[in-house]
Specification:
This protein is an alpha+beta fold and about 110 residues long. The chain has a domain of about 70 residues: Alpha-Beta Plaits, CATH 3.30.70. The strands form two sheets. The protein has a four-stranded antiparallel sheet with strand order 2-3-1-4. Strands 5-6 form a two-stranded parallel ribbon. Helix 1 runs antiparallel to helix 2.
Length: about 110
């Protein structure tokens, strides 16, 4: 129960007020990777608390929120623009491999 893991959280929220509230919540507890994609690091209890807080801000019949557990032994891969300015890195995030050529999106082990 105390083991911490990385999770990706993505959302599609349709009402502007619910969207702003959810963004504010996630910015306070997770790291932004893209406009609607966040990385969260926590244990099962912390994830349950975050899920409950997200559920209070969203409407299940109108909005979509997806949470994916990541493997701790694998880096994240990113193509495209970063959320942080060039040259600025957040070393609290999982390992990140940046791909500057957009023509190949093939991942290899």
């Amino acid at each position: 129960m105390h083991d911490k893991h990385w999770y990706l959280i993505s959302y599609d929220i349709h009402h502007p007020r619910r969207l702003k509230r959810t963004q504010r919540l996630l910015r306070s507890q997770a790291s932004a990777l893209l406009e609607s994609l966040y990385a969260f690091y926590g244990n099962a209890g912390e994830l349950a608390e975050l899920r409950a807080a997200i559920a209070r801000e969203t409407h299940a019949h109108d909005d979509d929120v997806l949470i994916y557990a990541l493997r701790n032994d694998r880096p994240l891969h990113r193509w495209g623009r970063a959320c942080l300015p060039p040259g600025l890195y957040d070393f609290s995030l999982p390992a990140l491999i940046e791909h500057h050529q957009h023509s190949s999106l093939t991942l290899r082990d």
